[in-house]
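Pimeloyl-ACP methyl ester carboxylesterase
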Amino acid sequence: MPHLLLLHGALGHSDIFTPYLKTLSQYFTVHTPLFSGHGDKELPAEGISIEKYTQELSEYCEVNNLTDVSIFGHSMGGYAALCYAMKSPENVHSIITLGTKFDWSEEQALKESKMLNPDVILEKIPQYAQLLESQHGPKWKQLLPAIADLMIDLGKNPPLENNFATINIPIQIMVGDKDNMVTIEESSRVYRSLPNAKLAVLPDTKHPLDKVRPSLLLNLIKDFWNLS
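Predicted structure tokens:
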């Protein structure tokens, strides 16, 4: 069976893919790796970056002898997937991204990173703090500033910018019409910059993956990969 990697976003967890596993396992050997700092994975002393996550993806494929792999990446997972395809196109069959932010400027990154203050989250959104602790353990308070640094680094040096035209594999860029982090415009711009891409806008869909209707997403996944 072909291999499918499901990649979570920043502060996300592979548990988010549970509603999709039964269906997708009929067509693929499904892998749900965790990026470092997430779940039970340690936060590296040297911090995290999109380059580090791309390297982790590369190592995961190497250790598991994965070639010609298909990838679905939510949010930052989609960004890492495209970075990996840019570096190792021979290893990647095709990619779907959903809710992946492409327009990273320093100003944008600083704005996003300011929302990642553990004390503010504890005070203003305690139920989100509880979720982060249940998924990532007590280190969630260190993970937040590490992700903020990753965003600021992305704003200063977005590795995909000006390189989309070099990624020739089939790609489907997807965005929810109610996503308040990613615009339809930036998704459309990237879709037009890629040589072999499709674009899908999901109706009545917000950014978090647990707010996406599984039946809608599965239909789009099946259509892209010709699964019947």
